[in-house]
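Hey, can you fold this?
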Amino acid sequence: MLSFTDARQKVIDVTGGLRHKPRRETVEISQAFGRILAEPVFADRDYPPFDRATRDGFAVRAADTAAPRSQLECIGEIRAGGSFDGAVGARQCVEIMTGAAVPSGADAVVMVEYTKREGNRITLERAAERGQNIVPRGKEAKASSLLLAHGTRLGYVELSLAAQVGQARLPVTSRPRVAILSTGDEVVAVDAQPGPRQIRNSNGLALETLVTLGGGEPVQLGNAPDEVGILRKSIERGLEEDILVLSGGVSMGKYDLVEQVLSDLAAEFHFTGVAMRPGRPAVFATCRGKPVFGLPGNPVSTMVTFELFVLPAIDLLSGALPRPLPIFRARLATPACEKGPMVHFLPARIEWEGREARVAQLPWQGSGDIVALALANGFLVVGPERPEIAVGEWVDVLPRRGAI
């Protein structure tokens, strides 16, 4: 049975090898957050387009400031977006604001905090060095230089940069369409009144949200009962989309039919179990050229396995590199004891004390306990090599997407 890291790499290798060219579209820049850039973005001019002051103060010639308490004549003022006609000559200066263009003749800016002014006479309390508090023209980027590469995920900084160079509309890849199919006779719609032994389809909503957070477009197929013919028809509908994600029906029970139906459809299975808990029965296959994920039906299992395995497939089919798992280290706040030859992902609460993260496992009743998961903002990751971990030891934690 594969480790979760090997299973994740298998998803990346197989999905990356599929012959899939992401569709493209052009969107308004205000609608491009989180999208994947389909074409590179280049600088339309030098940045900055002029020698730019980085502090409020006085534009000077550095050579005029060498003597202690040098005095200069202020011959004008430049604000951001303004201009100055003329040049700074010997023993002259110009008052300048942050972001303004440095006037001709000046080669440094002295911060206003280090000056005293009496009328137009400016006394400098410290010397300046050539280039001080100035960003030269083109220092950030030269005209036509590459700013954002094809395949870049557009966050707020990337969008700001695209706006700076006038890209009001951006070519992006279309979001992969992810079909979501729940299974099981016991599952009813969210707005239905469940029977005494039925449950509402909370997994369907969770998976829709996870797909959206991951950059995909969810396609909700509802629930299929434990009947081969209906399940097959639903799976075939899901295979019309870019990715198919099923929840439930992948364990070893008599009515767990997902693997049987996929086999009948000539699916190629890449793994049918992972050495992890929760999530051990997770399945990954390809069928008709599409990635197919069979996730365990218990909610905590569904959410953990989506994060580990489905998310990198969405990234790859979006035209991006798979995002690394955001696992980081924290000190254990309560003792942990988990035995068995697999990695455990345990609902946990992560808090910070100063700059140090601390994590405490939460009480829970197994992989069906979504109530406990709602109190958690991450997972404590406990491997088989450390069955007992004492308070204060460093451990791995995986944040819950959207909770931190």
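Oh, and this one too while you're at it.
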Amino acid sequence: MSTQRRLFLTALRFCARLPAAGFNGVDVVHPGAAARYVPVVGALIGAVEGAVYWLGAQLWPTSIAVVLSMVATAVTTRNVRVRGFGTVGFVFALLLKYNTLMALSAASLPFAVPANVALGLIMICGHAASRALVVSLIATSAHTTPARVSNGDLIFALAVGFAPATLLGIPGLIGLAIAILARVAIGAHLKHNRKAVGNGLFYATQQLTELCFYLAALASWPYV
């Protein structure tokens, strides 16, 4: 197995819930040098969610298609409910995400796309950006985790993770800015309370920054 393929599979297992078969020798605890591929995997997860939404919208109302897309994401990604949010926070986050995605399903992009594709692109942006921000948390918390993220890998991850959001225009940039602020607030909270950073915190950070991205983009869309 080539080095780059192994690193990609490491990032894939870090972000997704996959069977162990075929992943021998791949580290699932910390992505380490594979951090550069975490936003790439995030974009793929967003694409899966968007594809399920598009397929669902061909047969059922938007509300059902959104639920199906969220179920697809929950099935393919690692669960943060117990270690990251807690049950109450997890439920409220799901409800908020559902209603935000429902509202974003009517958003108009700066360029023409086929029907029911816009929300899928927005999902890709949210997943890629939020996982890039997880990489930044890993990089700044290297002294409390066995992960090591080089400056080059961090820059690459942020560039890949943030780039899709720019395609959405002003709403995408505003969503990105608010997601970054949320990530900074999480980092400041951890530093102030001297809390150890573990996988649960990484997953919770991804969920919170993704949600912040959607909320901020939605709030700004009527004004552009």
